[in-house]
Design goal:
Blueprint: H1 5-25, H2 32-54, H3 61-84
């Protein structure tokens, strides 16, 4: 697999948007610009692994990538918050 400069830029953009949206939904867990991009990218990986196993398909194209990455990032932020607070919300 070879990534072009454009595909890397799109991955970073989707990660940023997803991380930012997830930070808005799960308030109090912002990690800054780089952290939000990382959370968004990891969230996209989680969603791309989990959603096909569950048979979930939301949207198409770039919108689908953003929605999937955002939901994955929200799941990741909830898990991080529970771990940081010792299982309490």
């Amino acid at each position: 697999m070879q990534l072009s400069g454009e595909s890397i830029l799109i991955i970073l953009l989707v990660g940023l948007i997803a991380g930012w949206l997830a930070g808005l939904v799960v308030q109090g867990t912002g990690f800054g610009l780089i952290g939000d991009i990382a959370i968004g990218i990891v969230g996209a990986l989680i969603a791309s692994w989990l959603f096909p196993k569950l048979g979930i398909r939301l949207g198409t194209g770039l919108l689908r990538q953003i929605i999937d990455a955002t939901i994955g990032a929200i799941l990741l932020l909830v898990i991080v918050r529970l771990v940081r607070r010792g299982g309490r919300w």
